[in-house]
Design a protein that fits this description.
Shape: rod-shaped
Number of strands: 2
Strand order of the largest sheet: 1-2
Largest sheet: 2 strands, antiparallel
Radius of gyration: 37 Å
Number of helices: 8
């Protein structure tokens, strides 16, 4: 929900309340620091100062001001949590996560390529194996008698006699 809709007109905004001044209907900070969220402005004020916040908002076009305030609030919270590094701690952590994920992705892609190459080698071996090729089938595709290959000879010894389609192993 937009912070402008949550602001109550009968209460001063969090900025004016913190600065102990009267909040006018055209208060520049009211849309971004509603009365029900005083901690937002308190954090931003403590880190940046009220005059710097106003100067920054004046430099930003009106359509981008809400994003600028969100950024200032995030940076202020980060600076209060970690006074030395501020939001760079979070940025460094996220950059490390991205690098770790890129490494995992690279490893996974290598494994996929390796599996595909292994599959291709296996298929080439199977296709080149003379015992798996039906080279000596009689007319009509019947597998009976000596077919001249290990697979066909084993079928005959097992007493199996049928069409080629039902005797060919599924790969």
């Amino acid at each position: 929900m937009d912070s402008r809709l949550r602001a109550r007109p009968d209460l001063p905004c969090a900025a004016c309340r913190t600065l102990h001044r009267k909040c006018s209907h055209d208060c520049m900070l009211a849309p971004y620091f509603p009365a029900d969220e005083p901690e937002k402005f308190a954090s931003v004020h403590k880190v940046f100062g009220a005059s710097n916040v106003i100067k920054l908002l004046l430099m930003v076009e009106e359509g981008r001001r809400e994003d600028a305030v969100k950024s200032m609030v995030y940076e202020a919270y980060a600076r209060l949590r970690d006074p030395v590094y501020g939001c760079t701690t979070a940025i460094s952590y996220l950059q490390k996560c991205v690098e770790d994920l890129r490494g995992q992705l690279r490893t996974t892609r290598e494994k996929v390529l390796e599996s595909q190459e292994q599959r291709d080698r296996l298929l080439r071996v199977l296709m080149d194996d003379p015992y798996l090729k039906p080279t000596h089938l009689p007319a009509g595709g019947m597998v009976c008698g000596s077919g001249g290959s290990f697979m066909l000879d084993n079928m005959i010894h097992d007493g199996h006699c049928g069409t080629f389609a039902e005797s060919w192993p599924m790969i």
